[in-house]
Design brief:
This protein is α/β, with parallel strands linked by helices. Helix content is about 30%, strand content about 20%. A seven-stranded mixed beta sheet has the order 3-2-1-4-5-12-13, with helices on both faces. Helix 1 packs across helix 7 and helix 5 crosses helix 6. The longest helix has 15 residues. The protein is elongated and about 55 Å long. The protein starts with a strand and ends in a 7-residue tail after the last strand.
């Protein structure tokens, strides 16, 4: 039996650990696939491949050639293209597909959130909200903010960004998890008056939201794209492990059917784990 996990996320690494550990499945092979966009990625346990597949057709060919029994899309919640390629490839190769998506963030009392449907929408909102921007959307997509010459940006990313990017910009190379005290100091020391983030979810980067709330700062939150229609979704690695174990262990259930071992709902977005 062979499981292919797409993604270099924390959840993907944790899932690989769980599938390699007890109780496990005899003869189970697990391959983790990373896109290769980060210079020094945190590698999961087990077999790892790095690089693209050449689109949905290339991924479908890889699934067939390596006799994959189950595909898990554990990519970043904003890796929309890869998620849709995974759905197309799984359907073409007739391989069951499971999506692992951490839940998004929800505003709480005191938050001053402004939702945006894209980075372009976020850029349009900024001039009315502040002049010193803490931009935490990563190095990809900085070109969207390149024309905002009146604003100053603090950009945090794992690797150094490339042009085009905002002219008035300071780069902070760092990788989560981040602490609340560290985020408080960052907002204070750089006189930040507006924060931009993607709704990535998870605890590793959530302290910035608490720090912004305490400081009364507006936060532009870019909504995550939907999961492809009809793909089964679970919200944490433990739920994914139970589903995979039940399916490959002989339950004989297909994702999303009445015989689904966890009866997790299908849909176009993250759902609570069973």
């Amino acid at each position: 039996m062979h499981v292919l996990i797409l993604g270099g996320t924390t959840e993907a690494r944790h899932l690989a650990e769980l599938l390699h550990g007890p109780p496990g499945l005899p003869g189970l092979a697990v391959t983790s696939s990373l896109a290769g966009r980060v210079a020094s990625p945190r590698l999961p346990v087990g077999q790892v491949r790095i690089g693209g597949f050449g689109g949905a057709d290339g991924l479908a060919d890889w699934l067939r050639a390596h006799r994959v029994d189950l595909l898990v899309d554990a990519t970043h919640p904003f890796a929309r293209t890869m998620s849709f390629h995974a759905a197309r490839a799984a359907a073409a190769a007739r391989v069951p597909l499971l999506a692992l998506r951490r839940p998004g963030w929800d505003p709480v009392e005191g938050d001053v959130w402004h939702e945006a449907g894209s980075l372009a929408e976020a850029a349009k909102l900024l001039p009315a909200l502040g002049r010193r921007v803490f931009l935490t959307t990563g190095r990809m997509g900085l070109a969207t903010f390149a024309d905002l010459d009146d604003l100053w940006f603090l950009v945090r990313s794992v690797d150094a960004p490339e042009a085009p990017h905002p002219a008035r910009m300071e780069v902070l190379l760092d990788r989560g998890p981040f602490t609340l005290e560290g985020e408080r100091a960052l907002l204070r020391d750089h006189a930040v008056d507006v924060v931009v983030t993607k709704d990535s979810g998870g605890a590793a980067t959530a302290p910035k939201l608490t720090a912004a709330r305490e400081a009364g700062l507006p936060v532009v939150v870019v909504r995550r794209p939907p999961v492809p229609e009809g793909v089964l979704v679970v919200a944490d690695p433990a739920a994914a492990t139970r589903w995979i174990t039940a399916y490959l262990g002989g339950a004989g259930a297909l994702p999303g059917t009445d015989r689904d071992p966890l009866r997790a709902p299908r849909g176009t977005g993250p759902t609570p784990s069973p």
